[in-house]
C-alpha cells in the first residue's frame, strides 16, 4: 500500500510584511510620542529619590536581606545543623562548625551567604529548627563594587537587626 503525501504550498507574504517595516515604524512612532510627551511635560514624571524615599508598595512580608538571631544571653541561636544550607536551592549558604566545649552541641565558626547567588526564596528560614535565621531586616537592596562585598559573613549577619535600613 502506497503512502499518500499531501503537499501544502505556502502563500508568499508581501515584501513589506516580510521586512516587518510597518511594525517597526508603528513601534518607533509610539516610542517617539512618549519621548516628546515626557520631554515637554517633565513635571508629571513620577520618580523616587532612593534611598531617601522608600517605595510604599513593599509589604511587611517582603523578604529582605538575612540576619541571624541571638538568644537572651547574646549568643547566636544557630547550632550549625546545616539544615538551611541543605534546603537552599541555590547552594549559597556555607557553614563551618565546631563543638562547644563541655557540650554536645555545635556552633558556627563561619556562616557565609553569597548574596549574588541567593534567590531570596526563604527556604532557609523555613528549614531552620531553632528559628535562628530570618529575612526581615528591611534591607531590600545591597550595593557593592566587588564580589566579596556581596558575601554576608557571620559578623554582618549577627549584627543586622530587624528593620535595620
Automatic annotation (TrEMBL):
The reaction(s) this protein catalyses: a quinone + NADH + 5 H(+)(in) = a quinol + NAD(+) + 4 H(+)(out)
According to the entry, every stretch annotated as the 4Fe-4S ferredoxin-type domain falls at 66-98, 109-138
How this chain assembles, per its entry, is:
NDH-1 is composed of 14 different subunits. Subunits NuoA, H, J, K, L, M, N constitute the membrane sector of the complex.
Which keywords annotate this record?
4Fe-4S, Cell membrane, Iron, Iron-sulfur, Membrane, Metal-binding, NAD, Oxidoreductase, Quinone, Repeat, Translocase, Ubiquinone
Q: Where does [4Fe-4S] cluster 2 bind?
A: 88, 118, 121, 124
Q: What would be one Gene Ontology cellular-component term for the protein?
A: plasma membrane
Functionally, this protein is described as follows: NDH-1 shuttles electrons from NADH, via FMN and iron-sulfur (Fe-S) centers, to quinones in the respiratory chain. The immediate electron acceptor for the enzyme in this species is believed to be ubiquinone. Couples the redox reaction to proton translocation (for every two electrons transferred, four hydrogen ions are translocated across the cytoplasmic membrane), and thus conserves the redox energy in a proton gradient.
> What's the top EC group for this one?
translocase
The EC number(s) attached to this protein equal: 7.1.1.-
> In the UniProt record, what gene is named as encoding this protein?
nuoI
| Subcellular localization(s) per the UniProt record | Cell membrane
Q: Which InterPro entries does this UniProt record tie to the protein?
A: 4Fe4S_Fe-S-bd, 4Fe4S_Fe_S_CS, NADH_quinone_OxRdtase_chainI
Name under which the protein is recorded: NADH-quinone oxidoreductase subunit I
Which metal ions or organic cofactors does this protein require, according to UniProt?
[4Fe-4S] cluster
Amino acid at each position: 500500500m502506497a503512502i499518500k503525501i499531501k503537499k501544502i504550498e505556502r502563500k508568499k507574504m508581501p515584501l513589506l510584511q516580510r521586512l516587518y517595516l510597518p511594525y517597526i515604524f508603528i513601534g518607533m512612532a509610539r516610542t517617539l510620542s512618549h519621548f516628546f510627551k515626557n520631554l515637554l511635560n517633565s513635571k508629571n514624571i513620577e520618580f523616587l529619590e532612593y534611598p531617601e524615599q522608600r517605595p510604599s508598595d513593599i509589604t511587611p512580608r517582603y523578604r529582605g536581606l538575612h540576619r541571624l538571631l541571638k538568644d537572651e544571653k547574646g549568643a547566636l541561636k544557630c547550632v550549625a545543623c546545616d539544615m538551611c544550607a541543605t534546603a537552599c536551592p541555590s547552594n549559597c549558604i556555607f557553614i563551618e562548625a565546631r563543638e562547644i566545649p563541655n557540650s554536645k552541641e555545635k556552633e558556627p565558626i563561619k556562616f557565609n551567604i553569597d548574596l549574588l547567588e541567593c534567590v531570596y526564596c526563604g527556604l532557609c528560614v523555613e528549614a531552620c529548627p531553632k528559628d535562628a535565621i530570618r529575612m526581615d531586616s528591611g534591607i531590600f537592596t545591597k550595593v557593592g563594587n566587588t564580589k566579596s562585598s556581596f558575601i554576608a559573613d557571620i559578623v554582618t549577619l549577627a549584627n543586622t537587626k530587624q528593620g535595620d535600613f
